[in-house]
Design goal:
The chain has helices at residues 3-28, 43-54, 56-73, 79-97, 103-127, 133-163, and strands at 34-35, 38-39. With 173 residues, it is mainly alpha-helical. The protein has one domain (42-163). The longest helix is centred in the last third of the chain and has 31 residues, at 133-163.
């Protein structure tokens, strides 16, 4: 095993352990990330950053597994699995093909992924079923989107301290 492959493997393990710690802290109730009606979903920026740091296939696999586990304990019936897989894959594709790995790219991917997640969740689960869909959009979805985006940007700085010097893998073409 070469030094570069070993470094990537150690980075994968560190990222997975950090993600597991964040998800367990949030889902167990030890750390409640709620302010008023806004509730942060840390799984979303973690999935975006999995694609951001490790590429589209790792991001899609990470999103698929985390989304499936989330859907197993929620009543969303594959919503999280699909949207998190797409977010992880799209973030990995964008950073390897279009963006550089820098703060502006992380912010853009975090905002677009968060907007897609919360808007589609509102559209699928509440827009046509609930008589108070506008209230849910403004009080829950929009505020949760903003809160998740702010925490996602702060999470970027934490992950960049740990994984920032990770080299970009050469493409296999």
């Amino acid at each position: 095993m070469t030094a570069l492959k070993l470094r990537f493997f150690i980075s994968y393990v560190i990222y997975l352990l950090l993600s597991l710690i964040f998800v367990l802290l949030q889902s167990s109730g030890i750390v409640t990330l709620q302010i008023g009606y806004a509730s942060a979903v840390l799984i979303l920026p973690l999935t975006v950053y999995a694609g951001y740091y490790f590429g589209e296939y790792f991001g899609a696999t990470f999103g698929l597994i985390v989304g499936a586990v989330t859907d197993a304990f929620a009543s969303t019936l594959c919503f999280n699995t699909v949207i998190l897989t797409v977010c992880g894959f799209a973030a990995g594709l964008l950073v390897t093909r279009l963006f550089n790995r820098n703060l502006s790219a992380a912010v853009v991917m975090n905002l677009v992924g968060g907007f897609a997640y919360f808007f589609l969740k509102w559209l699928v689960l509440y827009a046509f079923r609930d008589p108070a869909a506008g209230f849910i959009l403004t009080r829950f979805s929009l505020t949760s989107f903003i809160y998740t985006a702010v925490l996602g940007i702060l999470l970027y700085f934490l992950l960049n301290l740990i994984l920032g010097k990770l080299p970009i893998r050469p493409s296999k073409r």
